[in-house]
Amino acid sequence: MGDNPMLKFVGTAQDYPSKRTASERAHDFTEISRSFHVEKAEEQASRCSQCGVPYCSTHCPLHNHIPDWLRLTAEGRLREAYELSNATSTMPEICGRICPQDRLCEGNCVIEFSGHGSVTIGSVEKFITDTAWKEGWVEPLVPGKPTGQSVGIIGAGPAGLTTAEYLRAAGHEVHVYDRHDRAGGLLTYGIPGFKLEKDVVMRRVQRLKDGGIVFHEGFEVGRDVTLEELRQRHDAILIATGVYKARDIKAPGVGAPGVVAALDYLIASNRASFGDDVPGHADGSLLAKDKHVVVIGGGDTAMDCVRTAVRQGAKSVKCLYRRDRDNMPGSQREVQNAEEEGVEFVWLSAPVAFEGVDHVSGVKAVRMRLGQPDASGRRAPEPEPGSEFTLEADLVIKALGYDPEELPKLFGSQDLSVTRWGTLRVDHKSMMTSVDGVFAAGDIVRGASLVVWAIRDGRDVTEHMHRYLKAKAKAGVHAQERELA
Question: What CATH code is assigned to 22-135?
Fold first, then answer.
């Protein structure tokens, strides 16, 4: 292969950044993996086969130029690698940490199919941008030439922040409204620090603030202002609230003290990591310390909950899921991390009741078997008759996913059209809702999904909003000309 810095996958084995031992990492909320050293990043990047059809890129929602920045990394051209990575993503170091690469880019790597183990794309992506921050290569957000137009963005999660950045760079005045006291959405309050340390999110937010984007934190549309009143302030609106309404379980005893929602539990834990006073920790209602914890669900939120409970000093942590390991929606890497940290998985099991009079004391469950595929193509779980059993529990965390809130009612805007699932209905050619000048992006349109898809939606809606604003400005000029005539 001569001096070719690539195609080293035959002689160089796949390697990931070393993880701290389970016993060490189970006592803190610091990220579990160390970053690559430069030599290791170059080595692992050099394993890329530079294939003609890069399935890694086509299966990335952002269509990142992965083979190109892997080659630049292998050649030691890290600044160029960062600039190329940054060209398609507003948060590459965040995606490098929390994307399920095993289901996206790495899971579709050509050399993975050949049996050599995929390129460790996410770890290299994280290394590139972390290096850029350290070296001062991440440039400030520079506003474009002022357009005289104003945009309001409801929701400071990944979709809203992405749109805010691009529209500010285009010269618009941008205001971001969020119900929480810190921006970032689930990046800040939903994802634990052992997957995404909070200073990584906060430095991104600060860059946007330094670029002149105005954040209105602790601000609720519907409480502090109606959607219509917000429309009067701005030339266009983006709704990027995400989905926060927790799905529930219909079972006797589900309302007992000690049965809590996953997001309440995770927000309390993340607030504590910021040093906030957390009533749910002070009274123990949202704290796992010295408790037998049962988490119900099989997605990434459930994995976040079980691993948080370990770190809070639970006596035992069990995850109850109605399907088997191969059919769970969460990342297999997260399952492995949880098992290493002492979490017990109770597969093919579902709750039927919650025991306890004044406080939950146990979960009564039934064994399940997988039947015929349902409408989604997944085999539907069915209960095994006579297979009931009970798990001891002082704290039960429901991690069953999220649905949209009733935004037309919440925002005081009955003109907002929703789908039968409660998500906002948009014209997919323009990403505009049923209300003129009001756009929507992210989970509030597609349902609970991945951060990388929210970034993609934020990027896409920017083009539609910019086109709308240009047309509106042009129409305003014509109206003024008619008045003068």
Answer: 1.10.1060.10
So what CATH class is 150-244+403-484?
alpha beta
- Percentage of residues in the chain with pLDDT exceeding 70? 98
pLDDT at 1: 43
pLDDT tens digit sequence for 10-37: 889 999 999 999 999 999 999 999 899 9
Structure-derived torsion over alpha carbons of residues 19, 24, 25, 30, reported in degrees to the nearest 10: -100
Q: CB of 41 within 8 A of CB of 125?
A: no
Report pTM. Answer: 0.94
Burial 285-318, CB ≥16 within 10 A → b, else e: bbbbeebbbbbbbbbbbbbbbbbbbbbbebebbb
Reduced DSSP (H G I as helix, E B as strand, rest coil) percent helix, strand, coil of the chain, to 5: 40, 15, 45
Contacts of 133 by beta carbon, 8 Å cutoff, 6+ apart: 93, 203
* pLDDT > 60? residue 484: no
CA 248, 252, 257, 259 torsion: positive or negative? Answer: negative
- The fold for domain 251-400 equals FAD/NAD(P)-binding domain (3.50.50)
The amino acid at 384: E
C-alpha to C-alpha distance for 379 and 119, rounded to whole angstroms? 32
Q: Is the pLDDT of residue 232 over 60?
A: yes
Domain ranges of the chain: 22-135, 150-244+403-484, 251-400
Which pLDDT band, with edges at 50, 70 and 90, does 373 fall under? Answer: confident
Helices vs strands, H then E, count in the chain: 19, 16
